[in-house]
């Protein structure tokens, strides 16, 4: 479903039906392997490239798609960026756009859990580029010192937009960075879903048993563009892409299952048909949703509108009345 969701997201953007999309092609094993090692009560602080974590935890596809349109049924009513999903009931924290801010949020949440003597741990996701941020250093310093129940997932997909990992750090491995913070660091094949699951499971167990944080580097490759606004052929060798294509994590797991006689083409066909139908249905419903009404700009700021907001709302209404003579915004944001 994650692969289909990404394919559909990119298509919708190319068709001009949504404005922006961030695909996670090739990184599915990391998302599915880590998410399945968690319990329902655990806190998740994702980056923008983990739709599979949301899907694995049972997030509504319809709601995720509503975020891409920023429509009336979107949890944030179009005020978050597209791809920045948020599901409080699933303990899926709103996606951070400023790189690595989610790292300190996860450490804070897990520290709270520890102080309250709860068993819920926190997991957070960031890229290879994310390890160069202040917030990575702050978060891991704090986590190591306070022995917080945090699992740090570094998705090393070899690039931070156009910057290769070789220019990102002098460290041989992102996992090596853990030593300086006083926590275990492990590098794992990020295209092997079972290896990712096992490494995460061990880190989650350690965190839950009060043994502190772990940094897991999942080594993979970003098969798609950074986002729908990016063209990786301008900075990336096609041969590198071709080499990683042979390591497709979904194909690899499928081959493994087939070799164990646990899966076959017939089951694959049935599943694909089912998933595509479910997705098509959610797309149709989300696209039909109206845009958020303009009043919510003012109404959702405070529980009661301040005099200034009332004034601004009235001014906008007056302007709309005047402009209405010339254009019909049909409740859409005038952007
Ligand atoms: C603090 C901050 N600086 C810069 C950016 C612009 N930016 C967006 S994505 C990105 C690259 C991040 O690369 P990485 O952490 O490796 O994650 P990936 O995109 O590969 O998943 C940058 C620099 C940002 N969003 N936030």
Characterise this structure.
The protein has two domains: 2-284, 3-Layer(aba) Sandwich (Rossmann fold); 294-335, no CATH class. Residues 326-335 have low confidence and may be disordered. Helix 2 (28-35) runs parallel beside helix 9 (193-208) and helix 4 (61-69) crosses helix 12 (265-288). It is globular. With 335 residues, the protein is an alpha/beta fold. It has a five-stranded parallel sheet, with helices on both faces. Strands 4-5 form a two-stranded antiparallel ribbon. It has helices at 2-14, 28-35, 51-56, 61-69, 101-115, 134-146, 165-168, 178-181, 193-208, 238-245, 249-259, 265-288, 296-299, 307-323, and strands spanning 43-45, 122-127, 150-156, 159-160, 163-164, 185-189, 214-219. Strand 4 and strand 5 (163-164) form a beta hairpin. The relative contact order is 0.13. Bound molecules: thiamine diphosphate (TPP). The site of thiamine diphosphate (TPP) has 15 residues, from strand 2 and strand 4.
The average pLDDT value, as a whole number, equals: 95
CATH class categorisation of the largest domain: Alpha Beta
- How is the main sheet built? 5 strands, parallel
Question: How many whole angstroms does the radius of gyration measure?
Answer: 22 Å
What's the number of domains? 2
Proper CATH architecture of the largest domain? 3-Layer(aba) Sandwich
- Which cofactor or ligand species appear? thiamine diphosphate
CATH superfamily of the largest domain: Thiamin diphosphate (ThDP)-binding fold, Pyr/PP domains
Task: Sum up the overall morphology in one term.
Answer: globular
* Helical proportion, percent range: 40-55%
State the strand order across the main sheet. Answer: 1-2-3-7-6
CATH topology of the largest domain: Rossmann fold
Number of strands: 7
